[in-house]
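Entry 14. Structure prediction run on the chain below.
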Amino acid sequence: MSPTETLPELMHGMTAEEITALTKQHNYGTWRYQKAWNPMLITDAKDCHIFDGNGKKYLDFSSQLMCVNLGHKNQAVIDAIKQQAEELPYAMPGYATATRAELSKLLLEVLPEGLSKFFFTTSGTEANEAAFKIARMYTGKSKIIARYRSYHGSTTGSIAATGDPRRWAMEPGGKGPGIVFAPETNCYRCPIKHTYPQCGIACADYIEHMIRNESDVAAVIMEPIVGTNGILVPPDEYFPKIRKICDEYGVLLIADEVMTGWGRTGKWFAMDNWGVKPDILVTAKGITSAYVPLGLCATTQKIADFFIDHYFAHGHTYEAHPMTLAPAVATIHEMQRLNLVDRAAELAPYVEAKLNELKAKHPSIGDVRGKGLFWAVDLVKNRETKEPFNTYAQKVDGKTPLLVDQIAAKMFADGVSIQAWVSHFVIAPPLIVTKEELDFGISILDKHLSIADEQCVTSSSQDLTSITSDS
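Output returned:
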C-alpha cells in the first residue's frame, strides 16, 4: 500500500490544513520562535523516506533527529510493539517482567564490557539526570564537568550541563549548582588555540587542571563524538587520556551516547572506537530506532554494588515500561540480523570520499568530519579564518536568517530532509541507506551549496581589494 492510499485513515477526518492549523495553534514548536513555525504534515514513512500530505517523498538524510537508525516501519519492531500491548501493556517498576529480563540479557552482549546494571528511562534527558544523581550518590561529591558545544538534554540538570545556547534561557538559575564547563575537543577550531598533534591533547590536560582546582568533582560527562554541535571527532589519544585522568583522581566518566550509540559510528557504541570503558553510559534514540521513547543509564557493577547497602534515591512511573522495552529487544535483533553496525563502518569511506569531493568543489565547505554514518559538513565564509556564516547568538536572537536553514529549505523542496544547526549540516541517514540514496542526498546538497559559495570571501590581498572597491 502506498503512502497516498493510507492518507484518508491518517487524516482522521481532518484536512491537511486543519491538522497543521491545530498543531500550530495548540502545540509549542521547540527551540524556535513560534511566529515562523508552520509544521508540514507528515502522513507516512518507510525505510529511508518520509511522505507529506500530498504523498511527496523525501529522503530522511538525518534519520529525523539522528534516531531512526533502522529506518521507518521495520516490521519486526512494529510486531514487538503489538505483541507487548496484548501481553502486558504496563507494570510498575517494582515488578519483574520477561521483556525487562530479555532486554537486560541482550544489553550485556552489545554494551561496552563492564556495564552490567541498568536504569531504564523514557528519554536521553532523563538518562542523563539519572547519571548525575547516581554519580553524586556514589562518590559523595557534587560537581559535574561538562564541555562547551555539548547537548545533554532539556530538563533542569541536563540543560545545566549543556554547553550550547539552549542553556541560556535557564540562566542564571538554571546553570547549576555544580556544573563547570571545560573546552570542547575541536581540532578544526580549537577553543584554546592549539594545533593537533603538537598540542599533546591540551584539552584533556585542561580537564585535569580543572579537577585538581575545582575539588569535589564527581564526574565528567562527554559525548564521545559531539552530536548536534558539529560531529566533533576527538583524536584517538583523547579518551584514553581522559580515562587515565579520571582513574587517577577518582572521578567517574559518563559517556553520553544518546546520539552516537546503536551503530551510528560503525561500532555498537562510539566509545568502542577507542576501546575505552566508561563508568556510566547513557543512551536513547536508536535503542528503539525511536519507534517508542526509551532511554538507558548503564553503570558498572562496582557502582551497582555501592547501592546494595545504600539507598538508591531515584525512580519514576514509566521506568522500565514494558511497551518501551519490547521494541528495544526487537531493534537489537534486527540490527544483528541486518549486520547494520558493520554496514555503517563499511559505508563510511564512501560517504567521506563523496563529501570530500564536495569540499574540493565548494569554497564554502571548511571541514568534513565524522565516523560511520555520522558526518558534518561545516560551512565557512572564509576558509583561511574559518569564520562561520552564522553564530550561536544569531541562532537565538532570531533576527538573522541562518544560511544553513536557507539551504536546508531548498533541499527539502527537492526531496531531501536534512538537519542544519547554526553553520553546519548533520548527515546521518538510517543505517539501511543505499549508496544510491547517499548519492541522491549528497547531489542535492551539492546543488544548493552555490548559495553559500556566493557569499564566501578570501583573505588574499587581491580579493580584499576587490571587496573594498565594490563596497
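Residues 91 and 440 are 45 Å apart (CA to CA).
Filed with the rest of this week's runs.
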